[in-house]
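Give me the 3D structure for Oxysterolbinding proteinrelated protein 2like.
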Amino acid sequence: SSLLWQADPRPEDSDQFYNFTEFAIRLNENRPHESYLHTDCRQRPDIRALENGLLDLAASEKERLENKQREYRKPYKGEKESDWWTPKWFTPIKNEFTKEDDWKYVGGFWEEPKTSIPKSDSLKIPDIF
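Predicted structure for Oxysterolbinding proteinrelated protein 2like (129 residues):
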C-alpha cells in the first residue's frame, strides 16, 4: 500500500484552540493589513471574542447578534423570505448536474469598497454586526 496523504502534526498549543490544525487556526485569522467588507464573518465580534478566549464576551455578543437579527426580521413575520430579502452577489439556480437548488455568483463582491472606506447606506450592505 502507498501513503497518499498524512495530516500535519497539530501545533503544541492546539488544545488552546479547540484542537484545530495550524491551517484551521489561520483560516479565520484577522489580518490588519487586509481590508474586508464589513459583512465579512472575520469581523464578527462574537467569533473574535471566542478566538481570543473571552468566553463571557463571546456569549453576550452572540446573544446580541441573534437579538439584532430577530428584530430585523420582525416586520416580515409571516412573509416568504424571498419577498423581503434578495442575495446581493448570488442568484438561485437549478444545478445542472445534481438537479438540486443551488446558488450562482453574479459578480460585484470584489468591486465593493472594503472597510477602509466608511460604511454607507448607498452601498445597500446591511449592518449585520
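The chain has a mean pLDDT of 85. Let me know if you want a second pass.
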